[in-house]
Amino acid sequence: MKNRGSIYKVVTVGLLGALVFVSNYLSFPIPVPVGDISRVHLGNVFCLLAGFVMGPVGGGLASGIGAMLYDLTNPAYVASAPFTFLFKFLLAFVCGIIAHRGRLSGSMLGECTISTPRYFVAAIAGSVTYIVLYLAKSFVTALLEGSSPEAAGIALITKFATSSVNAVLAIIISVPLAAVIKKALKSAKIAV
Predict the structure, then answer these.
(1) HSE, side-chain direction, 13 A CA sphere, residue 181
(2) Exposure winner among 10, 17, 75, 124, fewest CB in 10 A?
(3) CB–CB of 116/4 below 8 Å?
């Protein structure tokens, strides 16, 4: 029986990672005056969902792997892939640790009651974690590429705006979606 649970966990990490990967293609690129591209996308919805469903570690792995694979398949983002893995891992990790009350792994059967306020706090905390890390990396990268601090700061305004839109979309969509998925997993008696 323990083996079955491990198989469910691996499959769920893979499935959620695939959803993170595919949902990153549902995007609108936004030009940035300095540095790389910024995008409005649905990838963060599934990063948060991974944290809700799998808990911090499994959710972080699904989120990080899916987002990193997207970067590795897009020439504009290949160089950012290691940072993307870490930042998206931490997005789902922070969300998952708050949603699962400090436990490092999620169990859908053990905790099927949805605490909507807790889930919103978890989603907001995970999203803010990602935004802070992403903007710090973008600022440092722009400076290393020779931009003045002022130009790098101006580029961050656009990146902050698109990241905030991504965060709001992710929070609004992922919390109710997590409730539906948790209920379905409970009905199916699947513990992940």
Answers:
(1) 20
(2) 75
(3) no
